[in-house]
Every structure is written in C-alpha cells, then in structure tokens.
Design a protein that fits this description.
- The chain has about 375 residues and is an all-alpha fold.
- It is about 70% helix and about 0% strand.
- The protein is built from eleven helices and no strands.
- The chain has helices at about 10-40, 45-65, 105-135, 140-160, 170-185, 205-240, 245-255, 260-275, 280-315, 325-340, 350-375.
- Helix 1 packs antiparallel against helix 3, helix 6 (about 205-240) crosses helix 8 and helix 6 (about 205-240) runs antiparallel to helix 11 (about 350-375).
- The protein is globular.
- It starts with 8 loop residues before the first helix and ends in a 10-residue tail after the last helix.
- Mean pLDDT is about 85; it is low at about 50-85.
- One of its GO terms (cellular component) is plasma membrane.
- It is a multi-pass membrane protein.
- It comes from Streptomyces telluris.
- It holds the Pfam family Cytochrom_C_asm.
C-alpha cells in the first residue's frame, strides 16, 4: 500500500497566493464588464423594436390589402389565422451584444476578456500547485471542489469563445458567479492542504469527481442561458405588445395603485429592457441552454454510474440511499424531465425552462446543501 506524502507547505502557500491573485484580476474583469454594459448602445432597443414592428405591420396588412383589388370589386380570400407565437419562437434578430454599437463599450469588453484569460491562468495555477502540494487530485474537499469548479466554468466559457460562439454576454454573470464562488471557498470552505481519508484513495476519484465538476460547469452555462432566456422572452412579448420604452411608461401610469405586483413587474422592466435588448434572441438563448444540457446529460449519467461502481469498491454496495446518492439521482431525474418536456407539446418554452432551473438548483443543493447540512457517507468532503 503506498504511503501518502506529507503536504508541501511551500506549494500550498503558492496556491493560496495564486487564488487571491486570480480573485483580484477577476474583480478587474468584473469592472471592465460593467463598463462594457454601461457604454453599450441604447440604439439596440429601437433597432430590435423596428424589426418586430415591421414584421407585425406586414402580417397585419396582408388581409387588408386583399379587399382593394380589381377597381373596388371585393376579392375575398381565405383569412389567415393569427395566433400568439410560442415563447422563444418569434422571428427576432439577436441583439448586438453587451457593448451594443458602442466602440468604447467593445474596447472594455475586449479588456474584460483579456483579464478573464489572465485570471483563468492564475486560477489554474492555484489548482495545479494545490494538487502538487499533496500529489493527488485537487478536489478532495469542498474548498478544492469549489475552486476547481470555478476554474472549469471559466474554461468552458473561454472554450465557447474560442469556438466563435456568441457568448460574450455571459461574461458579467460568469465573473460575478466566480467571485462569489471563490469568496465563499476562501472564507467559509477553506481547508488546509492535506491527504485524503482512506475511502478516497482510488483512481475513481479522478474519474467520478472530475466528470461531476465538468457536468456542473456546463450545467451552469446552460442555467445562465435559460435564466436570461426567461427575461428576454418577457421583453420580446412586451415588445410585440408595444409595452417598451414610452409604451411601458404609459402602461405603468395607467395601472391602478392597488395592483402592486403588476406595477413592480413594470418598474423592473423599465430597468431591464435596455440590457435585455442587447442579448441574443429568446430562441437563441433557449437553443443554447437546451443543447448544452442535452449534451452533458449522458456525462452526468456516467458520473452517477461511476459513483456507484466506486461505492461498491469502497463500501461493498452499489447503492445505499446515501443523501449524496439520492440527490444525484434527483438531479438526474430533473434533467431527464426537462429533456422530455422539450419534446412534449405544450411544455416547450417557459415551462421547460423552469424545470431546467429547478434541475440546476438540485445540483447546487446536492453540493452545498447535502455536504453542509446533511450527514452521510460523503461527510468527509465537508468544511
């Protein structure tokens, strides 16, 4: 049986310095992304509104134009049935992005991406030196899992950018989430660099936990896209109804004072319509979220199977209804329901999106909630 090496304190300290350095640069990237959105062009709202208005006017004019043919002789045509488009299926162009049409905003956006790349390199260096300090996988406790998870999320984002995908709009929520994740890791979840408990001395640690981290990172991107889809879909619906800009202010003034919830939603829309107009269309956001979740779901299935195989090797049984096992399965069921809903008439669009967000909530609870508040065989991965 191999003897575990003592922790290398120098490398562990270097890892800590690198993670704090990464947080400092992530903060600069956060400020640059804020500047990108602030300098974003306001003309995006008008341009998107004009596109929808033109299409709506063309559709409305088709029926009226038929009655004016043949020198006043009415020519009756089969009327078109007009229905409200399914959420996320309107023919709406993608927004111009966080920077809008502002060159200054675009410069800040490019600076933010460069800072994010630098942060990622520092972050990766911290994870690597943490692993070298104990000569094992760098995800043996909640602190290490959190830092590696954050690094993987950023890696997925940068990979999508390198693949020329239109995802720069994720930059601000991404950096915000990473700062929260690392802040929680270094302040609450921090654990000194040390060796693992005997149950974790297995090559399955590399396989099972690494796939769980990769799945979580991809699920985060899918959840972010799905959440913004809900906001963008609401914006597009209001745009079709003429309840944006001046129309929204007029609608708000006409709302009775006792309809507090409706007034709250209208006031919220006043502040969110501008950034929403610069996002990709609801259909594009919905498609991105679905493709990511559908692609990663088989890997999440493998993660659960790998965990069961490891459990049999470590504890002598494949399944024991441990809280971590149960919530991993609940997460699997939730994502399976989402994928099924996407293929079911009447459940596409917003209903399926709510299921996707609930599924991601199950994943987050499975990590934080189960590890912190529930006692089980995975308790050694706690704080």
């Amino acid at each position: 049986m191999p003897i575990a090496a003592a922790a290398n304190e120098n490398l562990a300290n270097i890892s800590n310095v690198l993670i704090y350095s990464a947080m400092a640069v992530y903060t600069l990237a956060f400020l640059a992304h804020i500047a990108e959105w602030v300098f974003g062009s306001r003309s995006a709202v008008g341009r998107t509104a004009a596109a929808i208005t033109t299409e709506a006017a063309a559709a409305a004019g088709t029926a009226g134009g038929a009655s004016a043919q043949a020198g006043g002789t009415a020519v009756l045509e089969r009327p078109k049935v007009v229905t409200r488009s399914t959420a996320g299926t309107r023919d709406v162009p993608d927004g111009p992005g966080a920077a809008g049409t502002s060159e200054k905003g675009d410069v800040y956006g490019r600076i933010a991406i460069s800072l994010t790349v630098l942060s990622f390199l520092l972050h990766a260096g911290s994870v690597l030196t943490r692993a070298l300090s104990v000569e094992r996988a760098p995800w043996g406790n909640m602190y290490e899992f959190s830092t590696t998870f954050g690094m993987t999320v950023v890696g997925v984002y940068l990979g999508l950018l390198a693949a020329k995908k239109n995802v720069r709009w994720i930059g601000l929520p991404l950096v915000t989430t990473i700062l929260l994740d690392l802040g929680l890791a270094v302040s609450v979840l921090y654990t000194e660099s040390d060796q693992l408990v005997p149950a974790l001395h297995s090559y399955w640690l590399w396989i099972h936990v690494s796939t769980a981290i990769l799945c979580g990172a991809a699920f985060w991107v899918g959840a972010c896209s799905t959440l913004l889809y809900l906001f963008r879909d609401g914006y597009e619906a209001r745009l079709v109804e003429g309840r944006t800009g001046a129309g929204l202010r007029r609608y708000l003034n006409e709302l009775p004072q006792d309809r507090k919830y409706a007034r709250f939603k209208a006031k919220l829309a006043l502040y969110t319509d501008n950034p929403m107009s610069r996002l990709p269309s609801a259909a594009s956001l919905d498609k991105l979220g679905y493709r990511i979740n559908a692609t990663v779901f088989p890997l999440w299935t493998f993660t659960i199977v790998a965990g069961a195989i490891w459990a049999e090797a470590a504890w002598g049984r494949y399944w024991g209804w441990d809280p971590k096992e149960v919530w991993s399965f609940i997460t699997w069921v939730a994502y399976a329901c989402y994928l099924h809903a996407r293929a079911t008439a009447g459940w596409k669009g917003r209903k399926a999106a709510y299921i996707a967000l609930a599924a991601f909530g199950c994943y987050i609870f499975n990590y934080y909630g189960v590890n912190i508040f529930v006692t089980g065989k995975h308790s050694y991965a706690g704080v």
